[in-house]
Design a protein that fits this description.
Blueprint (H helix, E strand, L loop, with lengths): L6 E4 L9 H10 L4 E7 L11 H10 L3 E7 L7 H6 L4 E5 L6 H10 L3 E6 L17 E5 L14 H15 L4 E5 L7 H6 L4 E4 L1 H4 L4 H16 L4
Parallel strand pairs: 1-8, 2-3, 3-4, 4-5, 5-6, 6-7, 7-8
GO biological process, one term: pentose catabolic process
Function: Catalyzes the reversible epimerization of D-ribulose 5-phosphate to D-xylulose 5-phosphate.
Protein name: Ribulose-phosphate 3-epimerase
Length: 228
């Protein structure tokens, strides 16, 4: 599936759940093509968010690409459930998957795109053996578990390093970044190599969601050198 880069992916973790459909519609009306769903279990990360039912509701609200990020233990048990909920892409954590190759295979067998995420303290070398099988690599720019955290500065270098690895291996996966992305750093984040920018608070906590999306998209395109 082809998308114009960079991609802004608002995270509904920061949305008002009583207005979920309305706020997703506002996003897509402003040009958003991806909606990001952060799923937390209170075990892998110290918070609980939501499960397949909210993902399904997000899918009913629009035709946007559903980018589902599982911050959970034993993700293999829930692959089919999120496929049934309408996820277009399922991203799992390297740290939660002892049999990572099998997990990625299981995701693809459910006709979803497959992503792999790494926490800030996890070496990028740990996922090199799986890169040829994934569609996306998610570089966490905060420690997962809560929204609204500050961006960890060494993420810029990690994005550059992952871009180099991708180029050297001649692979086509997308590079996504999640955590603390806002108007003040999104240009540098994209310039460092990110293709997909997850933004939660900077979109849904803004006074004007539409204007925030427009401003973030403009800055992101400046970083990629694609602003016309």
């Amino acid at each position: 599936m082809d998308f114009e880069l960079p991609i802004l992916a608002p995270s509904i973790l920061a949305s008002d759940y009583t207005k979920l459909g309305e706020e997703i519609t506002t996003c897509t009306d402003a040009g958003v093509k991806w909606i990001h769903c952060d799923v937390m279990d209170g075990h892998f990360v110290p918070n609980i968010s939501y499960g397949p039912a909210i993902v399904e509701a997000a899918g009913r609200a629009s035709d946007a690409f559903l980018d589902v990020h599982l911050m959970i233990e034993n993700p293999d048990q829930y692959i089919e459930a999120f496929a049934d909920a309408g996820a277009d892409q399922l991203t799992v954590h390297q740290e939660a998957c002892p049999h990572l190759h099998r997990t990625i295979q299981s995701i693809k067998q459910q006709d979803m795109m497959a992503g792999i995420a790494v926490n800030p303290a996890t070496s990028l070398t740990t996922i090199e053996p799986i890169l040829e099988y994934v569609d996306l690599v998610l570089i966490m720019s905060v420690n997962p578990g809560f929204g609204g955290q500050s961006f960890i500065e060494n993420t810029y270098q990690r994005l550059k390093d992952m871009s180099i690895i991708r180029e050297n291996k001649q692979l086509g996966f997308l590079i996504e970044v999640d955590g603390g992305v806002g108007i003040d750093n999104i240009e540098k984040v994209t310039r460092s190599g990110a293709d997909v920018l997850v933004a939660g608070s900077s979109v849904f906590k803004a006074k004007n969601i539409t204007k925030s999306i427009e401003d973030l998209t403009k800055r992101a395109r400046m970083g990629k050198g694609t602003l016309v």
